[in-house]
Amino acid sequence: MSFNKYPLGGLKCCIASNRYGTYCVPQSSAHRPAAQAILKENVWEPHTIELVCAKCADGDIIHAGTYFGDFLPAFSRALRGGRRVWAFEPNPENHLCADVTMRINNLANVVLTNAALGEDSGKLSMAVSDGSGRALGGASRVVKTEDIRSKISIDVVSLDEAVPPDRNISVIQLDVEGFELQALKGAIGTIRRCKPHLILETLPSDGWIAENLYGLGYALSGHVHGNAVLSPQKP
After folding, report:
1. Most-buried pick from 16, 19, 42, 70 (CB within 10 A)?
2. Beta bridge mates, 200
3. What is the structure's pLDDT at 9?
């Protein structure tokens, strides 16, 4: 087992590997399920990874909720030449670990942004630990400003503004702890232009999907590890 603990510029992290690559896991959230899987040399959500890699075709991948980058090596290496992974992680500690994961694996085709995807660019509050002070890790989530949990201020960007309009997007994969609707609202231009496969941890309401996606030819095509898969149907 490849497992080492070391401080990296004040960051306490663990280094572990699985069949896809090597990862910088934040020690503060090593108790979280995804981190536990990697620390045991396993793969977290292997079928989600396989589906995204199968659907990326000749386009880019949008990956929001990157955590420490446990999907990044697989996504990066599935892409054809000139294609990119656009990764978004608002939690600063998670983002730093994802950046180290990128460097360890030499992932030159990944663009990592320290921000959440939302409807508009700006600032929001994010809970990064629970009531006892234990780190939420990949379960860090956007909260209302009056929420009593430990929170920090994070940057928010819209996908339509963050990704250049000349990029062809094949897959949008969102694991953003209930913030999927806002992220999709900020990506609607890209969705209309590229009609990518959508892999979502949390589905928006049926009404929103009917109004914004069914008219573009989308239909629910399945589920993977609890994520809903919406795909454009062939004419």
Report:
1. 70
2. 174, 228
3. 65
In this prediction, residue 234 carries a pLDDT of: 73
Strands 169-174 and 197-200: parallel
Instruction: Supply the CATH number for residue 82's domain.
Output: 3.40.50.150
The model's pLDDT over 143-158, given as tens digits with 9 standing for 90+, comes to 866 555 567 889 999 9
Query: Which of these, 40, 83, 68, lies nearest to 175 by C-alpha position?
Result: 68
Please state, in angstroms and rounded to a whole number, the distance separating the CA atoms of residues 128 and 188.
28
What domain count does the chain have? 1
Nearest Cα neighbor of 42 from 78, 6, 18, 7 is 18
Provide the residue range defining the domain that includes 132: 4-232
**CB of 202 within 8 A of CB of 227?**
no
Tokens for 68? 């420490």
Question: Which of 233, 203, 227, 232 lies closest to 50 in space, CA to CA?
Answer: 227
Q: Tell me the pLDDT band of 3, cut-offs 50, 70 and 90.
A: very low
205-226 as b/e: b if 16+ CB within 10 A:
eeeebeebbeeeebeeeeebee
